[in-house]
Amino acid sequence: MTLYEELKWRGLIKDTAGNDLEDKLNNEKLTFYWGTDPTADSLHLGHYSSLVTAKRLAKAGHHPLLLIGGATGLIGDPRPTAEREMISKEEVERNLISIKKQVEKLFAGNVEVVNNYDWMKEYSFLEFLRDIGKYINVNYMLDKDIINRRLETGITFAEFSYTLIQGYDFLHLYQEKNCILQVEGSDQWGNITTGLELIKKKLGCDAYGFTMPLVTDKYGNKFGKSEGNALWLDKEKTTSYELYQYLINVDDEMVIDYLKIFTFLSKEEIEKLEEKNKENPHLREAHKALAREIITDIHGKEALEEAIKISETLFNGDIKKLNGKEIEAAFKGITPHIINEETNIVDLLVEANVVSSKRQAREFLNNNSITLNGEKITDDTLQITKNEFIEQKYLVIRRGKKKYFLVVLEK
After folding, report:
1. Whether residue 181 sits in one domain with residue 100
2. pTM over 0.85
């Protein structure tokens, strides 16, 4: 299977520009670029699909340029509904530094990171209009889908100009880096074609581009988003355990597509997992493979092992196998109940909102439904001391089979 055939099989090619793109990808070594604006201090799982495609091209011998938009990030690309909130120059710079480190780690240094602010900062407005603006017709820009959709509600000149700047990025990289291919998500097709148009009109040369379909769940929501909250690649923002839980619980009907998009597993390996998924879906082998491949690539093998340990320990209830750091990862996002002195088990269950009353607390205790750090508790006169806490700080209460609560002892 050629590189192009593999990209097609994995569902990674939507729109293409350049008649001999397939031959170029299969038989030449191209310099290509993919870009993102530093609107946050970390990339998220939605970006990761593009990063994996860039890594796939790099493994085939093509040279990757990762453009971080220090200039375009100051403007913000047009959204379908409303203008993006502008962020400060200082924040853009901080975000850029963080993302650069993230990308270089993911590529193990085998990538060239560029910043479009480096070539835009000295470019005067008048020079840009004369050198670039005169080559792109306004009607051509109005036909761009993302701009056209905003005409009724209104679009600012800054947003309107975004496609010109990104088009110039392609022209600049073509001239300075011999970059002849741009690879982006399908929402960037209009910006890619603006770059192609500039290169054609200004230099009389041909360049290439292709887009990848945006990755979504079965309901059409962007992959890596949950109620508006991204799954960040930075494990301080999204822990490996959180990522693991998300990935092993993705929709059964989508998991094979995700294995094709997000992993470097071969066609044969993925087809075997597909068969296993059909024969024994309860084993979730495809889901576990998805989590294994993504987390190992992003955070490393140790982080994967920690995520699996936390997951299995919570499932089995043997909480004492976890250390403080792992408990914090497991309960990230959940506000713990804080205590600073010894207390009775019944009072603690009520105060930590494990139960609604002392009567209910005694009922759960008598029915063997309460565990403290994995041990069943039936004694309603038990005094909770620091010795009950892991590292004399963490106490995990489980009510029934699935409801967990965290109590933290502050000294």
Report:
1. yes
2. yes
